[in-house]
Specification:
The protein is an alpha/beta fold. It folds into four domains: 2-166 and 241-319, Alpha/Beta hydrolase fold, catalytic domain (Rossmann fold); 332-532, 3-Layer(aba) Sandwich (Rossmann fold); 665-774, Luciferase, Domain 3 (Luciferase, domain 3, Roll); 777-880, 2-Layer Sandwich (GMP Synthetase, Chain A, domain 3). The strands form six sheets. The protein has a nine-stranded mixed sheet, sandwiched between helices. Strands 16-15-14-12-13-17-18-29 form an eight-stranded mixed sheet, with helices on both faces. The protein has a seven-stranded mixed sheet with strand order 11-10-20-19-21-22-23.
């Protein structure tokens, strides 16, 4: 029996028309009594719209929320149907004793609640396909239903929840406190303490009317018995009445093969990330997205409804059971699909070590010690094998994540190759991210093991990073105990043991974190095939031979020397702070290694050029032997490249274009840049594609969005879309980010593609010109404008050192503002004087409404070269609104 709505009419965000009560007979095992349920149900509205329903979403809340938690999905699902998208019926339930459902006055354990939900769906005549959605302990209940109803189940979706708690590990502190006998009734039933604490977990804080809505069904102790009952039903150990049912559900979840989506708020003090790890282990095929900054109330913190409906759209064919459903991109990647010629070749990264294991020539040289440390191929191969065997003997297995907190050099090289050799996944995050960024990266990657120097291990201990700790050097026993160190690398070498079977080309090999210059650092996932393809692309394009020798002041390439079969040297510098590299240090590294190729980042080049006066005659003679120079990390202009060629007069300067997701995409030499500059074009020319790489442009529409089909039409401004044999597999636990990066790009030929977020165009010769980042496009009344071309115009003025052009005002009607560093430098931020402002305006075809001066433009924390235009835009908006000028 279905009755009329029961919700108050003034609850924000929910339409009372969706409110229903249903009378349902309990399962016979629970007494068979008629119980009254309250739900939010979109079925009638979809019927009124005449929308064919693809399936049903059963949404189950946890404690102490209720169906109101799912109001955004309820509304969004109807809006999607109205817009012609696939229609999904949403049934958001209030569990018995919760929300506006009946207070039964009985103890309802987990098994009872699973049966309750089954009785409800039977009464409603729900058949299938059904996709379950659960949060908190509603996640467990929804999974219990899923395990018991395989014939109806078509998919599972979860927000922060858990199905298993490790034996011997205390439950999270907030739950321990709430469950304490002296506190249970007082905090959950007699008062609203538990409810208030839960609502306070939202970030940002909930509006007062939303808090009131969540409290509305729980006014009075008589209405809060279910809140206390849920807390009391947490299975803390084997003696608990619900422990067996939880174990049954956990085991059943591991057998589910339907599509799965895991959405997670990592700032949850209750469902901490070990519970996400457990779910991923049980549902290894699941799509996972961690919303940085979100917490327990993820449904309140982020627009989860967009994620849910987008995922359902992506998986619709599989969920509704269409027999000719195309493979998802994920499935196609896992099957290998169609591969280019370069992708079919595979030689493991450690093959060169195997080939040169009897060679006593230098493989790795570290210039940081007072006396340079030289490691031969024989020693390096032996150390790699011994560390690999020791790691395996310690318990490191294929697929285990190992976070590396070791600076570039011989030790890091040996550890990385050892991990790769046994199939462990190396997690590399740059110390240049800062403590906060590095901590977020390590926590997000959830390594099982951490290998680090003393400083890194101290940070791991202080910040509570996960993983068994291994020290790179021997530590005194008291220090070892204080840092929680299980073993040292020397201990592992001494352990001995056999090497396991080597990993295959499609096994995961590495998670490399981005710089964090365009948002929180993202973990980029590479397979062994992709890393080997990077080695091969680099080796072929720059003609690396065993006698070439590499000087690498850029961390990602510092590790490829052994893979390329040539010696590599790390200059004396702090790799996490590129500006610490000097010209003398580069010369010493070249002289020590007889290196013919030098890799440096733009920030390092700036200081190398600035310290050139300290070079001796011997230094200059050594640098004259360099044949190839590469600036990698961000494109640089002809002037800086020309300055480096003065230091290395016989080298061909290159500035490849790439990113963490694909380290080499295009390449251009200094002569190529000069030829390009002779053409009347906009942006920075980064040259032509390397090897079998491909570049397309997704044109911008009037709103500045890259919505057009990617193409190679010359002269069209749009987002740069790339493909390469060494392109990453995806992002780690960032399904939404990965989805955005591959949306609407061709995949019929089996290639993997990536939307870079950069904007630019191709010219008639197929060269790529970069004109900024997609978020920095200024959408004016006349259409979208990229910033770099206008910045180049301004920077031609003799009084301007650097410039950033940003937008201010409402979207679609934004105006351009120039923010400049002057020569000489300004003492403080200010509005430019009339003379400079007039010169800046006259320099550019783009109408510039205001000119601001700053002592220094803000840049990202790692490259020290990418201007933070988003920050400048917000700052300029405030200054032009009348705020007193302060540093941006």
């Amino acid at each position: 029996m279905v009755t009329s709505p029961v919700l108050p009419s003034d609850l924000p965000g929910v339409d009372p028309r969706f409110s229903r009560t249903v009378e349902v007979a309990e399962h016979a095992a629970d007494g068979g009594r008629i119980r009254r349920w309250h739900l939010l149900d979109t079925g009638d509205e979809l019927a009124r719209l005449g929308a064919p329903v693809a399936g049903t979403i059963i949404a189950v809340h946890g404690n102490p929320t209720w169906s109101y938690l799912w109001r955004a999905l309820v509304s969004a699902s109807v809006a999607a149907a109205e817009a012609g998208r696939t229609a999904w019926r949403v049934i958001a339930v209030d569990q018995l004793d919760m929300g506006f459902s009946e207070r039964t006055g009985t103890t309802r354990r987990l098994a009872t609640r699973v049966r309750d939900l089954g009785a409800l769906t039977d009464a409603l005549g729900i058949e299938g396909p059904v996709v379950t959605l659960g949060h908190d302990w509603g996640g467990v209940v929804s999974l219990g239903w899923a395990v018991d109803r395989p014939g109806q189940l078509a998919g599972v979706m979860l927000l922060n929840t858990a199905v298993h708690h490790p034996e011997g590990v205390p439950i999270p502190a907030p739950l321990r406190l709430a469950r304490a006998r002296v506190m249970l009734a007082a905090s959950t039933v007699r008062t609203t303490a538990f409810l208030d604490t839960t609502l306070a977990l939202a970030s940002p804080a909930l509006a007062a009317d939303v808090k009131a809505a969540f409290r509305s069904p729980y006014r009075g102790a008589s209405r809060r018995g279910g809140v206390g009952g849920f807390v009391d039903d947490i299975p803390v150990d084997r003696r608990h009445a619900s422990h067996a049912e939880l174990e049954r559900i956990a085991a059943g979840v591991a057998g589910l093969e339907v599509p799965a989506l895991l959405l997670w708020g990592p700032r949850d003090p209750v469902f901490v990330e070990r519970y996400l790890d457990d779910l991923i282990t049980r549902l290894p095929h699941a799509d996972v997205h961690r919303f940085e900054g979100a917490g327990h109330l993820l449904a309140e913190d982020r627009a989860y409804d967009d994620a849910v409906l987008g995922w359902l759209d992506d998986n619709r064919a599989r969920i509704v059971g269409e027999s000719d459903a195309p493979a998802t991109r994920r499935e196609a990647r896992e099957r290998g699909a169609v591969r280019t010629a370069a992708e079919t070749e595979f030689t493991p990264l450690w093959a060169a070590l195997d080939a040169r294991r009897d060679d006593d020539g230098p493989a790795v040289i570290d210039m940081s010690p007072a006396v340079p440390m030289r490691v031969s191929w024989r020693v390096l191969d032996d150390r790699v094998r011994r560390i690999a065997a020791g790691l395996h003997d310690l318990g490191v297995r294929r697929g285990d994540r190992v976070s590396l907190l070791v600076p570039p050099g011989a030790t890091l090289t040996a550890v990385i190759y050892a991990c790769l050799r046994i199939g462990a996944v190396v997690v590399v995050a740059d110390a240049g991210l800062g403590v906060k960024g590095l901590s977020r990266a390590v926590r997000g990657a959830r390594p099982a093991f951490v290998i680090g120097e003393r400083t890194g291990l101290a940070a791991a201990r202080a910040l509570g990073w996960p993983g068994i700790r291994i020290s790179a050097t021997r530590l005194p026993a008291p220090v070892r105990r204080a840092l929680g160190v299980t073993a040292s690398l020397a201990d592992l070498v001494a352990r001995g043991g056999d090497l396991p079977e080597a990993p295959g080309p499609e096994d995961l090999a590495a998670i490399l974190f981005t710089s964090g210059s365009t948002g929180p650092a993202k973990g980029v996932v590479y397979t062994h095939r992709q890393l080997s393809a990077l080695r091969d692309t680099l080796g072929r394009h720059f003609e690396v031979t065993p006698d070439t020798g590499l000087v690498t002041g850029f961390a990602p390439f510092a590790l490829l020397g052994p893979a390329l079969g040539t010696r590599s040297v790390t200059p004396d510098m702090d790799v996490s702070a590129p500006r610490t590299l000097t010209a003398s240090a580069v010369a010493a590294a070249v002289r020590e290694s007889r290196g013919k190729i030098v890799f440096l980042s733009p920030a390092a080049i700036l200081n190398v050029v600035a310290t050139a006066d300290a070079l001796t005659a011997d230094d200059r003679a050594a640098l004259a032997e360099v044949q190839t120079f590469l600036s990698t990390g961000a494109p640089i202009g002809a002037g800086l490249l020309a300055s480096t060629r003065e230091l290395m007069p016989n080298a061909v300067p290159h500035t490849p274009y790439g990113m963490t997701e694909c380290l080499l995409v295009t390449d251009i030499t200094l002569d190529g840049i000069r030829a390009a500059e002779a053409a009347p074009d906009r942006g920075v020319c980064v040259g032509s594609v390397i090897g079998e790489n491909r570049v397309l442009i997704s044109a911008l529409d009037a709103t500045g969005a890259a919505t057009r089909a990617p193409a190679d039409t010359p002269g069209v401004l749009g987002e740069i879309v790339i493909s390469a044999p060494h392109l990453k597999t995806g992002y780690d636990r960032l399904w939404l980010t990965d989805r955005a990066a591959i949306r609407d790009v061709p995949d019929a030929d089996g290639r993997r593609w990536h939307r870079t977020g950069d904007v630019g165009h191709l010219d008639a010769d197929g060269r790529l010109w970069v004109e900024g980042r997609l978020p920095h496009v200024i959408v004016t009344a006349d259409g979208p404008v990229a910033p770099v071309g206008a910045e180049q115009d301004v920077e031609r003025l003799p009084s301007v050192r650097r410039a950033a052009v940003v937008g201010v005002g409402p979207q679609g009607l934004r105006k351009a503002v120039a923010v400049v560093e002057t020569l000489p430098a300004a003492r403080r931020p200010a509005i430019a004087d009339d003379r400079l402002a007039a010169a800046v305006r006259a320099s550019s075809e783009l109408p510039i409404v205001a000119v601001l001066v700053v002592p220094s433009l803000p840049t990202d924390i790692r490259h020290n070269s990418k201007i933070d235009r988003a920050r400048l835009s917000a700052w300029a908006d405030r200054i032009l609104a009348g705020e007193r000028p302060t540093a941006p």
